[in-house]
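R.M. (postdoc): so does anyone remember the format we settled on? I'll just put the structure tokens first.
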């Protein structure tokens, strides 16, 4: 059943607008990764930086890659976060500095906990499936767990809630008693919901959580009749922020639709997010960057080599000229 938080660092602030239900549609921005891969970035955005501990949401594809290299991300470091790899079509070959060497396929969860430091590469295998479609998500680690030892989990058998018109796969957390084995460090939930054409169903939620939805196909209508009614169909490329205080959602779909539901206890700590690092101060981020640059120049360091990857690791970008400052979960009103 659901995990009720007792963590004093993660609390709902009574004056926070997100304590109650809202309908806030946030548009994605298109970001080019590497040579050519385009992704829709839904978090962080100008208006909202986090949903629970979810601090980064990229949705990519479906892309036709039959005669293309597909995803080719060279070894790069992370600290202070978990990466969640979720595929809707195709596959991704994950290697990391712990020695993990696995292919992640649709329906399987790749969960990498960076903690104090890890490096990994992500590639479409050769040969690969003709289409690539998925989501790359990050979860911020709370202060008391953010320097934990790195680990990688590959869960091939996730709990599924199957009912008339709906199939929901629980990536992380718990829905209606179906709990993912993925290890998390704050109360949160991640669900892949598939609705059949004509579906009109309900999904229970944790009232303590804030939630958001991104559509990966179709145009689901989402809301709660008792609270605010159904929002118009949510198209691909937008994030619907739902706020908190909801015990359930009504889900309707005229055509087959699929979306990811992300939620969690509002994250009270302020973060510094830069490149692939999540920290608390600009100095800490600069130290991580220096350590990575020293490692790729041949030195020892906290991240480690990604064995089996052929090619050079990524070089960190230059730090911005202005200091990196911690920021909260919502846009700062000044
Ligand atoms: Mn990464």
């Amino acid at each position: 059943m659901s995990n009720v938080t007792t963590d004093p660092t993660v609390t709902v602030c009574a004056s926070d607008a997100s304590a109650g239900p809202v309908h806030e549609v946030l548009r994605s921005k298109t970001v080019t990764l590497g040579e050519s891969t385009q992704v829709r970035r839904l978090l962080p955005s100008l208006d909202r930086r986090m949903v629970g501990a979810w601090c980064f949401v990229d949705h990519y594809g479906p892309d036709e890659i039959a005669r293309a290299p597909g995803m080719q991300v060279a070894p790069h470091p992370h600290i202070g976060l978990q990466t969640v790899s979720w595929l809707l079509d195709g596959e991704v070959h994950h290697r990391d500095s712990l020695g993990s060497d696995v292919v992640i396929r649709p329906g399987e969860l790749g969960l990498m906990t960076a903690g104090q430091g890890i490096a990994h590469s992500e590639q479409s295998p050769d040969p690969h499936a003709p289409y690539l479609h998925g989501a790359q998500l990050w979860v911020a680690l709370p202060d008391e767990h953010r320097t934990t030892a790195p680990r990688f989990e590959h869960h091939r058998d996730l709990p599924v809630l199957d009912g008339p018109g709906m199939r929901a796969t629980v990536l992380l957390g718990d829905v209606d008693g179906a709990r993912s084995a993925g290890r998390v460090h704050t109360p949160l939930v991640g669900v892949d919901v598939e609705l059949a054409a004509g579906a009109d169903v309900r999904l229970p939620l944790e009232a303590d959580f804030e939630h958001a939805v991104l559509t990966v196909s179709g145009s689901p209508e989402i809301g709660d009749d008792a609270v605010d009614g159904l929002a118009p169909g949510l198209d691909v490329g937008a994030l619907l922020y739902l706020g908190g205080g909801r015990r359930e959602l009504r889900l309707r779909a005229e055509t087959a639709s699929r979306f990811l539901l992300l939620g969690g206890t509002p994250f009270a700590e302020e973060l510094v997010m830069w490149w692939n690092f999540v920290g608390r101060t600009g100095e800490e981020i600069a130290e991580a960057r220096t350590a990575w640059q020293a490692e790729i120049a041949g030195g020892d360091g906290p991240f480690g080599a990604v064995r089996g990857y052929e090619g050079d690791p990524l070089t960190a970008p230059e730090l911005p000229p202005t200091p990196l400052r911690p920021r909260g979960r919502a846009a700062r009103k000044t």
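R.M.: ...and that's the designed sequence above, right after the tokens. Also worth knowing: Residues 11-264 form a domain with the Jelly Rolls fold (CATH 2.60.120.10). The chain has one domain: 11-264.
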